[in-house]
């Protein structure tokens, strides 16, 4: 990795402080209150999808072809609910990891103050996603037990690199999906509105996470780096595979085991995962965080595959 004056690793403490001040100003200038800025009382449209059809996990399969338009719309509603549920779960983890990280730091610094600001943003996002679940008349899809309990371990043992690299993975994946949704005028207006709020505010979070992940990872010793790479790889694997909960298919009136099997072997769904993760993959590869044994997890999740032109 070749560093320049603009690379995160070359930044002095003063430069990091200046970055924190800029992020604080951006937060003050452009933030939303989802409870006020989104129209939660507007009725949902009867015949509009909740996600682009080609991003739905069963798209392009024989099972998809056998479904009516109404069934497909309902599946898109429930898959969106699952993704929102994952967002709430991860943002709750992230807030705890960030609080742990700044517990011993100086609150007079702009870096710590921005950390508190981001925690506030994530609180509002979790409320927004919770409101969305209610509006969708959908359940909260809690992660499967192994993943949920793994989250307890992660939040208790995370270091700076795992905190920010893990956050960047989830934020980038959601950002890619929401940017596409925001631009799709055929989707539910509320979905596009929620996507817009999250995109604008997460842009700051991702900028912060990219820089801090690189700085924290570079400062770790070799064994700690290997551990960080493994934790981030496992997080990426589980998050990418767990975005759509198996119960979504049951609640959509499908045979759950059949639908799960079809979704997991669907090349369109696999290509979508690689497409959504392509930017964060490039970022983490640039700082040498996807190497060694941990790379196998990224590969097994399908996140290292080239993105077909038709998917992008």
TrEMBL record:
* Superkingdom of the source species: Bacteria
This protein's name: Diiron oxygenase
Q: Which SUPFAM superfamilies match?
A: Ferritin-like
Q: What InterPro entries does the entry give? A: AurF/CmlI (IPR025859), Ferritin-like_SF (IPR009078), RNR-like (IPR012348)
Task: Say which species the protein is native to.
Answer: Mumia zhuanghuii
According to the UniProt entry, its GO molecular function terms are: oxidoreductase activity
Entry-linked Pfam families:
AurF (PF11583)
